[in-house]
Amino acid sequence: MAQAVTAPGAVAKRRSVKSIYPTWFYLPAGLLYVVLFALPTFASFYFAFTRWSLQDVEFTGWENFVTFFSEPQLRTGFINTFVYGFVTSGAKVVLGLALAVLLTSQLIGRGYLRSVVFFPVLVSAIGVGITFKVLMDPFDGLINESLSALGITGPAWLTDPQWALMSVALIDVWKGVGIATLIYIAGLAAIPQEYYEAAKVDGAGGWKAFRSITLPLVRPATATVILLSLIGGLRSFDLIWATTRGGPGFTSDVIASVIYKQYQAGFYGLSTAGNVVLFLVVTAIVVPISTLLNRREVER
Amino acid sequence: MVVGNRRRQLAVAVAASAALGLAACSGGGGGDGDSVEITFLTQTGGTGPEWAEALIEAFNEEHPEITVTLNTQPGGTEGDNLVKTKLATGEMEDVFTYNSGSLFQAINPDQNLVPLTDEEWADTLIESMVAVVSTDNGIYGAPTGASQAGGILYNIPIYEELGLEVPTSWDDFMANNQAIADAGHTPVIQTYGDTWTSQLFVLGDFANVAAQDPDWAEEYTSNNRRYVDQPALQGFLNQQEVYEAGFFNENFASALFDDGVRMVATGEGAHYPILTGATSTIAQNFPDNLGDVGFFPLPAQDAADTRATIWLPNAAYIPSTTEGEELEAAKLFVAFINSPEGCRLQTEFNVPAGPFATSLCELPSDVPRATQDLQTWVDDELAGPALEFLSPIKGPNLENITVQVGSGISTAEEGAALYDDDVVKQAQQLGLEGW
To answer: What pLDDT was estimated at residue B5?
Structure first.
């Protein structure tokens, strides 16, 4: 309630600096913000310190955080989260740029081909996950049957502890590369053709032009792709849950799936503490990267 | 437990939600004095929704003034979560089915449920059933089916072909496995695509543990027993041993429960450690093979300790948010579940996989072979309840831990130690003494 009262006040103060709207104009959005975002956020910081059954709350101090960090799955979960985040992000940058270069060239049916790359983005992650679970079945799956037709014995993909996480990452890249490609296509289109013509006159080959003109000039697009896919990768959950549920055992667990399992088990306080930790971790990784990438951009 | 035919479940769920939509449209005015509307929640999976529809239809013939609307939700851990959330927010249906035992204790019965101790059916429950649906304040649930056992379903034709005897000690069991493997069959079926099925080596061994240490469950609840110590560790060790011997089916990591049922019913595999409730699925999908599947308990190391581990049935409960004439109607509906017609429907939709938990229902004479096998263990008093019916503690991660042990990712000792850590959270959340 306290926040609800102070929020319009704070808004009024800002208005006195310089605002083109009257105070009442901010009220509906401000109210929504407080009720739907501010209050739950503060409440979650409180509940993270309690043992909570949705009906009874018992304050337990730092105990949830101690328990959370002593969770045996959490070490795997942390490592997997980073591996997953960085692998998918890196692959999307490389593949996205390559596809964008291909799709900005003079191709027949370019518009259609571009939309084909983007289609997987539009499908729900759960649907993609279930489909790939069938495709990646070690014995009757289409992928391994095709491989064995070529004389290759495919791995057990989602059910092999060595492969499970990378298999999900592979699906994630297939599903998400369309966004990266789209951003890169926009970035490439913004590079003036004159640079390429001048380079050609100076005798630069295709590879040289790509390295010295394209790569530096699509940096803003690269920054966006890295940030978006890294944030997405670090908090990724739906695809992992639909394909492996963190298994076999705990081998493909990420922080988000550990938290979800705690929530399922009814450890509401503990899982809230986990979410607070996840929030801090993602912030701690993304903020420096974001400043770094944006600063270089300005310097240039 | 997830048992059954997906496509039919889906059809039923669609039908149920369509009916729901219609009810929502027509129910706008509602409550014209004489008629009462109540809702009934049951879990999808197996024959649950079909049974519930038939039950409602039969109930309506006797009580045309009461309209019952069926809602369904998934079972398993996802369902646990939904049930807890619905109870906490007061959104629970007027009658719902849910597990008895430790999961029942975890939904805070004294606060969330209506005591049904004064109902006529309440004093017909067998003693072990009373214990798992009641607190100090009374009985809260009516059983919604027969009990079942967790043990090994085996393929009788393979046993006959190789001239094997039903094993009662672990060494006999492993010797049988070797003979079966030598003959070119799959000795033991595992289906980790449905992770819950991986727990049977541990959970189904509990009556053997209790035979060696009768106070184990009680001491466990007060934090004086551990899975890292014998005799409880043996379940984990057994699972590791069978994995390392290479006795599992090739696709154990991805196979599903339905695959396992098919394999044991049709002789693709010899032993399937599972709940005997799986016979309902055999009856549905492979009715001709029902007589080919027998049951024996998971053998203890010493044959003298071998017992059948019994799972008591789920029960129907009424949440404390149901009041007034809805409460009266809900009580009538709960009582109807174990009426003569209700008992008939229970056996019609679920092949009884073990004895009933109330004297109101009786087993038909033509129960499947596996149920007859189980009955002899129960009659000889060589049976005991599973741990989840004796202690409120059950860690949420056991199924992932047993997948690890059963896939060689971790050893039995590591798995047991992980599980001991896992249950601490549950015990603390329940506010038990000594944790």
So the answer is: 44
Q: Which fold has domain B148-311+375-430?
A: D-Maltodextrin-Binding Protein; domain 2 (3.40.190)
Which is the CATH superfamily of the domain at B6-143+314-349? Periplasmic binding protein-like II (3.40.190.10)
| Cα–Cα dist B196/B3, whole Å | 11
Residues of A in contact with B78 (CB under 8 A): 264
Kindly report, residue by residue over B101-158, the tens digit of the pLDDT.
988 988 889 999 999 999 989 988 988 889 899 998 999 999 998 899 999 999 999 9
- Which of chain B's residues have a Cβ under 8 Å away from the Cβ of A247? 192, 195, 400, 403
Q: Where in chain B are the domains?
A: 6-143+314-349, 148-311+375-430
Q: Which amino acid is at B361?
A: C
Assess whether pLDDT exceeds 50 at residue A1: no
- Whether a cis peptide bond, with omega within 30° of 0, leads into A248 is yes
DSSP B164: P
CA gap B310, A91 in Å, rounded:
51
pLDDT digits 0-9 by tens, B215-271: 999 999 999 999 999 999 999 999 999 999 999 999 999 899 999 999 999 999 999
Q: DSSP letter at B225?
A: -
Walk me through the domains of chain A, giving residue ranges and CATH numbers: 2-66 (no CATH), 73-299 (1.10.3720.10)
The percent of residues in chain A predicted with pLDDT above 70, rounded, is 92
User: Considering CB atoms only, which of A53, A137, A266 is closest to B254?
Assistant: A137
Contact predicate A263/A237, CB 8 Å: no
The answer, yes or no, to whether ipTM is higher than 0.85 is: no
Nearest to B429 among A138, A160, A267 (CB): A267
Residues of chain A that touch chain B, judged by Cβ-Cβ distance less than 8 Å:
51, 53-55, 58, 67, 70, 72-73, 137-139, 156, 158-161, 245-251, 261-267, 270
Q: Return the sign of the alpha-carbon dihedral for residues B330, B331, B332, B338.
A: positive
